[in-house]
TrEMBL record, chain B:
Transmembrane segments: 14-34, 74-96, 117-137, 157-182, 209-228, 266-285
Domain ABC transmembrane type-1: 72-284
Tagged with keyword Transmembrane: yes
Keywords: Cell membrane, Membrane, Transmembrane, Transmembrane helix, Transport
Membrane topology label: Multi-pass membrane protein
PANTHER family the UniProt entry points to: ABC TRANSPORTER PERMEASE PROTEIN, INNER MEMBRANE ABC TRANSPORTER PERMEASE PROTEIN YCJO
Name of protein: Sugar ABC transporter permease
Pfam families the UniProt entry points to: BPD_transp_1
Compartment annotation: Cell membrane
Protein family (similarity comment): Belongs to the binding-protein-dependent transport system permease family.
Length: 272, 295
């Protein structure tokens, strides 16, 4: 059934107004990143010229390239680590029969009730005792196991017929081959969803890198932003905003590109 | 023996496949949780080793500390400011973006955009907008000749300002989850109600919201937990000030542990945080159970 024209206009009006309000801060930061100091003080919205001066400045004041690379390595590692660890566990929960399965499943659930911040004090000492301060493994390994990720994949694995597993065993396929050649390929959408989620949350992580990076060697962009903001605040907002834009572009792109896939995954789930 | 070996192949494989998760959970979640509870009964040295057993003194100290009471109050207020408004806004946007109109994909992208922006980046943007002399908010106020506000510097306004920015930061995620929930509602439910000539708000109240309630429960729980865990925006926007008005619990734990090196009292605060989140989670489970029973 179709809605009337006045109703349509009304909804478009609300859509345009509210989405513009939501996106405004980002757009504003983008504009500021091209402005000179006086322009910012005058309170303009559009810069006089779109010159990349602030961008070259931010790259020269901060090892931003280095930080970006670190963030990329850390996020990609956590993403891959989570996909491996979670898919292995989900496979065991769905396809293997063993004693104590319910108990272990309960253990997994219980990890979701423990806020990460409540455990950070001993974790920092663990990292120190392992000598993992300022290392990639210190930034990544603690996040490889994820109950949420295991459940997400388990949900998808459950839709694979059990008979397929039995048939493949009769055909002489090893358990690992079945996992690798059958289970993973048919679960692509869930793996992509979990991968995007893992990358995004790791890229945006703030407190943990703040605690265990004490120098620039493996520091991530988020901590770089804090550094930039405390250095430059009084003087050059344009440079700070250029840094902000550089940091948010990768995740915004990932979100914009992945949104369709996400939508598809969601509507597929609805058809079940 | 060999048949036992063959029969147990599933169990042995399972151990192998679950081992990475179990080891990581043990080292980075279960052990530190018990260690935190243990440390909360001790005074510690600078390296975080338990030194003197003080029983419940750390907890007694917290209950009598105006700093901690203030931090708890601020956290509860912050949760009340951010969660209800955040969810109502996300629901409103999701309802708009669920209409089948031309170009709706563009609007969905706009609404979900804040999910792709880190807490650190968002905080820096809002820090600028709250700036008393060149920020946008005070410029707007002066356009309408209203008195200027010292947003992040005024103890009366700082918590509210951080809350406003936090609502914005969480909007994208809540929006995507609620939109997903809306798209899972069976179209046929609406078809039959339209024939009866039901109005938009009637359908909203009678079909959409009830069908959406599991999703809403889920996002309310996640939002509550997230609000209790707030840290990044405090560190960048206010550092817990002015006069501790924004010293939320995780920031307070961070300061007590890694700036004051009081690991015992910091651990006691961490245990309090754990208990709060446990209660929220259990309440959620109970409520959902109840709902399922009634259906």
């Amino acid at each position: 059934m179709k809605m009337g024209l006045p109703q349509k206009i009304w909804i478009y009006f609300l859509l345009i107004l509210t989405s513009a309000l939501v996106f405004f801060p980002v757009l504003y930061a983008f504009m500021i990143s091209f402005m000179t100091g006086p322009e910012i003080i005058q309170g303009k919205f559009f810069p006089q010229t779109f010159s990349f001066e602030n961008y070259t400045k931010v790259f020269s004041r901060l090892p931003l390239m280095n930080y970006l690379l670190n963030s990329f390595i850390v996020s990609a590692s956590v993403m891959i680590g989570q996909l491996i660890v979670c898919s292995l566990a989900a496979y065991a929960f769905v396809f293997l029969k063993f004693k104590g399965r319910d108990f272990i499943f309960f253990l997994f659930i219980s990890t979701m009730m423990i806020p990460w911040e409540a455990t950070m004090i001993p974790n920092v000492f663990t990292i120190r005792n392992l000598d993992w301060y300022n290392t990639y493994q210190g930034l990544t390994v603690p996040f490889f196991a994820l109950a949420f990720g295991t459940f997400l994949l388990r949900q998808h694995f459950l839709t694979i017929p059990k008979e397929l597993h039995e048939a493949s065993q009769i055909a002489g396929l090893s358990r690992f081959k079945f996992f690798w050649k059958v289970v993973l390929p048919v679960s692509k959408t869930s793996l992509v969803t979990l991968g995007a989620y893992g990358f995004l949350t790791t890229w945006n992580m703030y407190l943990w890198p703040l605690l265990i990076t004490t120098n620039q060697s493996v520091r991530t962009v988020q901590i770089g932003l804090k550094q930039l903001q405390s250095q430059e605040i009084a003087t050059e907002w344009g440079v700070v905003m250029a840094g902000v834009i550089v940091v948010i572009i990768p995740t915004l792109l990932l979100l914009f590109l992945g949104q369709k896939q996400l939508q598809k995954g969601l509507s597929k789930g609805a058809l079940k | 023996m060999s048949t036992f070996w063959r029969k147990s192949v599933d169990a042995r494989t399972a151990v192998l496949y679950l081992l990475p998760s179990i080891i990581l959970f043990s080292v980075f979640i279960f052990y530190p949780m018990f260690r935190t509870i243990y440390l909360s009964f001790f005074l510690t040295d600078q390296n975080g080793n338990a030194a003197i057993n003080v029983g419940f003194e750390n907890y007694q100290y917290l209950l009598s500390s105006s700093e901690f009471i203030n931090s708890t109050k601020a956290t509860v207020l912050f949760v009340l400011y951010t969660v209800p408004i955040g969810i109502v806004l996300a629901l409103f946007f999701a309802l708009l973006a669920n209409e089948k109109l031309k170009g709706i994909g563009f609007f969905r992208t706009m609404y979900s955009s804040t999910m792709g922006i880190s807490v650190a980046a968002s905080s820096v943007i809002w820090l600028f907008m709250f700036n008393p002399s060149i920020g946008m908010f005070n410029r707007l106020l002066s356009v309408f000749s209203l008195p200027q506000i010292q947003w992040l510097l005024d103890p009366e306004w700082a918590l509210l300002s951080v809350a406003i920015s936090t609502i914005w930061m969480n909007l994208g995620f809540s929006f995507l989850i609620i939109l997903g929930g809306l798209q899972n509602i069976d179209e046929h439910l609406y078809e039959s109600s339209r024939i009866d000539g039901a109005g938009y708000f009637y359908r909203l109240r009678r079909i959409t919201l009830p069908m959406l309630s599991p999703t809403l429960f889920f996002i309310i729980t996640i939002s509550l937990i997230n609000a209790f865990q707030t840290f990044g925006q405090i560190d960048i926007l206010t550092k817990g000030g002015p006069s501790q008005s924004t010293n939320l619990i995780v920031y307070s734990i961070y300061r007590e542990a890694f700036i004051n090196y009081q690991f015992g009292t910091a651990s006691a605060q961490a245990v309090v945080l754990f208990v709060i989140i446990l209660i929220v989670t259990i309440l959620q489970f109970k409520l959902v159970e109840k709902k399922v029973h009634y259906q």
